[in-house]
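Let's practice the habit of predicting before peeking. Look at the sequence and jot down your guess about where helices and strands might fall. Then scroll down.
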Amino acid sequence: MESVIPTIGRDPRLAASVGLLAGAGAIDAAAGSPRGALAGALAVVGIYGLAVHARSVGRRRLALHALGLWLAFLAFVPAWIVGIGTVAATTPAPAAAETALTGLTWGVLLAAVGTTTFLGVRGYWGRGARASGDRVLERDSDYRSR
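Done guessing? Here is the structure:
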């Protein structure tokens, strides 16, 4: 029996990639954190996950995911305008909240940039940029010879 529950909004690869990128941002944002190599490794694995996700979905769905990620990033902008420290001070654990907000912001930003980049690459190579240049050379000229 087939499942009748739609799975349009659920993509574990995208969620895992955003989580890895957020983890990289949180590790990098932690005060005095010497774990830059770990943050870099998480970011590389997160971008690889985005690449796998971009290959597995259609262009329209990838565009919707990119748009959603950019809108999610814009949701963090007011906190940065007010000041992350000010926003984090309103929570019971300000240091943890500041690290979490920074990590989430970086994770969503990197995922939005990566998804948009993969969408652009797919659009550029998908339409055959090289083939269109060849067609210009092979086309008959508009000049009439006498």
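How did you do? The two ends are 73 Å apart (CA to CA).
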